[in-house]
Amino acid sequence: MNEKKIWKINKIVLPQDSDHAGVMWHGRYFNWLEEGRINALSEAGISYFNLCKKGFELPLINASIKYILPLYLGEKITVESTFNIGKSPKIKVNSKFINESKIVHTIAEVNLVLVDKNNFSIIRKRPNFISKAFLKLNNNINIS
After folding, report:
1. Residue 30: inside a domain
2. Which of 4, 16, 66, 81 is most solvent-facing, going by the fewest CB within 10 Å?
3. How does pLDDT run across 55-100, given as a tens digit for each residue?
């Protein structure tokens, strides 16, 4: 069994991310989760924008966020994500928001599906180029 690859992005809570008390706004977490997914997909070999040009989308079908501790203005955070992609059309992404002291502030799970952009039908048999990238996302595997 292969160990899950952890995909990371580093962020800083900026004024635009927070309220007047300096606490990160709850909706901003979704932006960072999406940024992490798009970055991971790109590192795995598929630009999300090219995926869309080829007629596919990866819409969010549900999400769950548990806010354990608040994030504050100026705080440096690493968003760590793992992908669970199997034969099912559903793609599960689990993420953690971790501060510099390695304390987990937030955990999240989002579920996506690959769809045909023209009619929003779920793609059950993924094209080869997508399957290869998903394999890289899912595992710590290098595919040539």
Report:
1. yes
2. 16
3. 999 999 999 999 999 999 999 999 999 999 988 999 999 999 999 9
What local confidence, expressed as pLDDT, does residue 62 receive? 97
Considering only CA atoms, which of 131, 88, 110 is closest in space to residue 35? 110
- Structural domain range at position 69: 7-138
DSSP for the chain, please give it.
-PPPPPEEEEEE--GGGB-TTSBBPTTHHHHHHHHHHHHHHHHTT--HHHHHHTTEE--EEEEEEEE-S--BTT-EEEEEEEEEE-SSSEEEEEEEEEETT--EEEEEEEEEE-EETTT-PBPSS--HHHHHHHHHHHSS----
With respect to residue 2, please indicate whether it lies within any of the assigned structural domains: no
Instruction: Mention every residue, 6+ apart, whose C-beta is less than 8 A from residue 67.
Output: 26, 29, 105, 106
Kindly report the CATH number assigned to the domain that includes residue 67.
Answer: 3.10.129.10
pLDDT exceeds 90 at position 144: no
Determine, yes or no, domain membership for 96: yes
- Count the domains in the chain: 1
